[in-house]
Write a structure and sequence with these properties.
The protein has about 525 residues and is an alpha/beta fold. The chain has helices spanning about 15-30, 55-65, 70-85, 90-110, 115-135, 140-155, 165-175, 250-275, 285-295, 305-315, 370-390, 400-415, 420-430, 435-440, 445-460, 475-480, 485-505; strands at about 10, 40-45, 50-55, 185-195, 200-205, 205-210, 220-230, 275-280, 300, 320, 330-340, 345-355, 360-365, 395, 465-470, 470-475, 485, 510. It has 2 domains: about 10-135 and about 395-465 and about 480-505, Orthogonal Bundle (GROEL, domain 1); about 205-355, GroEL. The chain contains 17 helices and 18 strands. The protein starts with 8 loop residues before the first strand and ends with a strand.
Length: about 525
C-alpha cells in the first residue's frame, strides 16, 4: 500500500538528524567570522548582480539563498532576534549552531533527544537567571547608553567617522522621542550619498524624498503652516462611461473653461486657507501646481502614506480629504521647511514640528555601499539603546556574560540527575563558543584566551575579550565601557535554544517533489 506519493522523498532516524544538524551548523558557521569588533565582512552577490557588503548577521542570512528547512530555522533565529531587540543576530545564530553541534555529540553517545531537549531548557532557565544577576546596577544614564551604542556599532562599517560620535547622535535621537517610554518608530534613518560619513547629522523632524511640484515654488519656508491632503487635485472624472458630443468651438471652450475653473478653485481654496506648504498623497495637475507656485505655496504630490503619516505626527497636521472646508485647526506647523539639492535629487526637510516627536538621522556616505552599511549600524545602535532603556538594563559585554552564564550552569549541573545532566553541561560548553570566537577574531589563541577568561572570572568576578590593535587582552569590560543590553542576551539564549531543540527532536523528514 502506498500512503505517500511515489516521488516523495523521506529521510528517517539518524540520517534525518544528521542532515538537519549539519545544515544548521553550516548556516551558523557562515556568520561566525563576523562576530565582534574584529569580525570580517561578507560580500553577497544576487542573481541580478546586486552587491551587499556587510558583517550584520541578520542581513547576511536574509540575503543568502537558503533552501534547507532546518537551515531556514537558524535564519528565523536571526530574524526573530532582529525584530525583538535589533541586535545580537550573529550571537544567536552562532549559539544555535554550537548547541546543535553539542547535541550531535550527545546523540552519538546514545543520549535520547528528549533528554537533550529537557537539559537544554533547564540550562536556558539557569542562563536567564544568571543574566538577571549580571545586570549592572545604577541608573541608565547617557554615558552608559553611549557605551552600549558604541559596543553595538564598533567593527561595523562606519566610513570615516568613529563609533563614539555616532553613539552620541543615537542617544540624542532616542532621548528626543522618550517620554514615559521610547517611541522607536519616531526615529527614522534616511541615507544620501555624495558626502563623507562624518557629515551624518540628526535632523529634528522628517526628511521627505518628494520634490517640489514646480521649479518656481519657494525652497525655504519659515514658520510654515502645513496641510496634509489625502486626495487628488485634478479634473474630476465621472464614475460612469460617457461620451460628450461637441459640435462647436463655443462648446469646446466652455468645457475647457469648466476644467480651468475647477482647477483654479482647488488652488484658490488652498491659498485662501493660508497654508504655506501642502503634502498631497494623490496627484496634482500641473495647472494647479503653477497657480500655487505663483502664490508662493510649496507643494508636493504622490507622498507615500507612511511618510504622510509621519509628517502628520511630527507637525500635528490632520489628514484632510477635501479642500472645501480647510480650517486652521487642520493645519500642522513647522519652524522650517527647506528643500536641499543633493546631486540630481532634492530632499525636503520638515524641521521643528509643533509636536517635535519625530527625528531623522540623516546618513551620508561616499558610496551607496558605505551609506547602507552605516544605516544598518545606526539602526542597530538605536535598537540597543531602546532595549537598554525599556527592557531591563545592561550587562557586561565582550563575552563576559557568556562566561558567567556557563559557570553558573556548570555549578547547578551537579545537582541534576540522569542523562539530562549531560545536556546541561553541553549547553555550558556551547556558550564558550562566543568568547572563543571573539578571541579568534581578535587575533588571540582561542584556547589560551578561554583558560585565562575562566581564571580571571574566578578571581575577579568578571572577564571579557578586549580587542586592541591587531590582538586582544582579557580584562574587565565594565572598565573598558563594553556593555550589551540584557534583553539582547535573554533573547539570544531563548531563540537559539528553541531552534536547537526543535531541530534535535526531528527524526523524520518527508519532502514532496
Amino acid at each position: 500500500m502506498f500512503i505517500l506519493a511515489e516521488d516523495t522523498e523521506r529521510t528517517q532516524g539518524e540520517d534525518a538528524q544528521s542532515s538537519n544538524i549539519t545544515a544548521g551548523k553550516a548556516v551558523s558557521n557562515s556568520v561566525q567570522s563576523t562576530l565582534g569588533p574584529r569580525g570580517m565582512d561578507k560580500m553577497l552577490v544576487s542573481d541580478s548582480g546586486d552587491v551587499v557588503i556587510t558583517n550584520d548577521g541578520a542581513t547576511i542570512l536574509e540575503e543568502m539563498d537558503i533552501e534547507h528547512p532546518a537551515a531556514q530555522m537558524i535564519v528565523e533565529v536571526s530574524t526573530t532576534q532582529e525584530e525583538e531587540v535589533g541586535d545580537g543576530t550573529t550571537t544567536a545564530a552562532v549559539l544555535a549552531g554550537e548547541l546543535l553541534s553539542r547535541a550531535e555529540d550527545l546523540l552519538d553517545d546514545d543520549v535520547h533527544p528528549t533528554s537533550i531537549v529537557e537539559g537544554y531548557h533547564e540550562a536556558a532557565r539557569i542562563a536567564q537567571e544568571t543574566i538577571d544577576e549580571r545586570v549592572v546596577e545604577g541608573s541608565v544614564d547617557d554615558d552608559l547608553l553611549e557605551n552600549v551604542a558604541v559596543t553595538s556599532m564598533t567593527g561595523k562599517g562606519t566610513g570615516d567617522i568613529g563609533a563614539r560620535p555616532l553613539a552620541e547622535t543615537v542617544v540624542e535621537a532616542i532621548r528626543r522621542v522618550e517620554s514615559d517610554n521610547v517611541d522607536r518608530d519616531s526615529v527614522r534613518v534616511r541615507t544620501q550619498t555624495g558626502a563623507s560619513s562624518s557629515a551624518t547629522e540628526l535632523v529634528e523632524g522628517i526628511i521627505s524624498e518628494e520634490e517640489p511640484l514646480h521649479e518656481n515654488m519657494p525652497r525655504r519656508v519659515e514658520s510654515a503652516d502645513i496641510a496634509v491632503l489625502d486626495l487628488d487635485l485634478e479634473v474630476s472624472e465621472s464614475n460612469i462611461d460617457a461620451e460628450y458630443n461637441v459640435t462647436s468651438v463655443d462648446q469646446l471652450n466652455a468645457a475647457l473653461d469648466a476644467e480651468e475653473s475647477e482647477l483654479q478653485t482647488y488652488a484658490d481654496s488652498l491659498v485662501d486657507s493660508g497654508i504655506d506648504v501642502a503634502f498631497v498623497t494623490g496627484d496634482v495637475d500641473d495647472r494647479v501646481a503653477s497657480a500655487l507656485a505663483n502664490e508662493g505655496v510649496l507643494a508636493f504630490d504622490s507622498v507615500d502614506d507612511d511618510e504622510a503619516e509621519a509628517i502628520s505626527q511630527a507637525t500635528a497636521a490632520r489628514f484632510v480629504g477635501t479642500v472645501d472646508d480647510l480650517e486652521a485647526d487642520d493645519f500642522g506647523h513647522a519652524e522650517l521647511v527647506r528643500v536641499e539639492k543633493f546631486g540630481d535629487e532634492e530632499l525636503a526637510f520638515i524641521e521643528g514640528g509643533s509636536k517635535a516627536e519625530s527625528v531623522t538621522v540623516f546618513v551620508r556616505g561616499g558610496t551607496e555601499h558605505v551609506a547602507d552599511e552605516l544605516e544598518r549600524a545606526l539602526s542597530d545602535g538605536l535598537d540597543v539603546v531602546t532595549a537598554a532603556i525599556e527592557q531591563g538594563g545592561v550587562v557586561p559585554g565582550a563575552g563576559a556574560t557568556e562566561i558567567a552564564i556557563a559557570d553558573g550552569i556548570r555549578e547547578e549541573a551537579a545537582s541534576i540527575t540522569g542523562r539530562k545532566q549531560l545536556a546541561v553541561e553541553a549547553f555550558a560548553d556551547a556558550l564558550d563558543v562566543l568568547p572563543r570566537t571573539l578571541a579568534t577574531n581578535a587575533g588571540m589563541d582561542p584556547i589560551d584566551a578561554l583558560v585565562e577568561l575562566r581564571s580571571t572570572y574566578d578571581s575577579e568576578g568578571t572577564a571579557g575579550i578586549i580587542a586592541e590593535g591587531q590582538t586582544g587582552r582579557v580584562a574587565d569590560p565594565l572598565e573598558a565601557g563594553i556593555l550589551d543590553p540584557a534583553a539582547v542576551k535573554r533573547e539570544a539564549v531563548e531563540s537559539a535554544t528553541e531552534a536547537a531543540t526543535m531541530i534535535t527532536r526531528i527524526d523524520d523528514v518527508i519532502s514532496a517533489s
